Fold:
Amino acid sequence: MSALAISPLSMNQLTRDLWSQYDCSAIWQLAPLANDGCYNMKFYKAPADEDELVAANAYVPYGLRVTPGSIIFGFYLPCIPNTANPWQSAPGAFTIQITDVSQKHKWFDDPVSSLFISNFKPTFQSNNFGGMGSFPNLLASPYPVVGSGLFNVEIQETSGAQQRIEVVLGVLEVC
Structure:
């Protein structure tokens, strides 16, 4: 007798199966992989450490290679906390476009604002490090990496001031 897979993501108290929200659908698709020994969690960051300080209104193209056979499941883009009103916390202002080079597929019709990929879903707060952990902003459906695994990540700073930009992709990498 086989049992339905129970995702550890479903234990997150900030994630609910609500009508018109796709987290529950994405979690349902990822649930069978939760205890699968074929995948390991890995994070890919764009741009590289030495390029993450972006000048005002600068355009930063970045090449990213993800292991073919892996599955991209979401973004980790923390918001900058607003201590006066935490519900107005937002990420740094920039736009992003991701292109799968092998498939010649752009993820978005037009470059999207960082607001659409940010993930202000705090899961814990650390007084020791002055930060907080956050649940990822899941893609509507997991994205399989095929072909060469090369991606072009194009970032355009839009705030008009120099800022540090780091977009992290959550990936289930094939072992």
In short: The first strand starts at residue 39 and ends at 46.
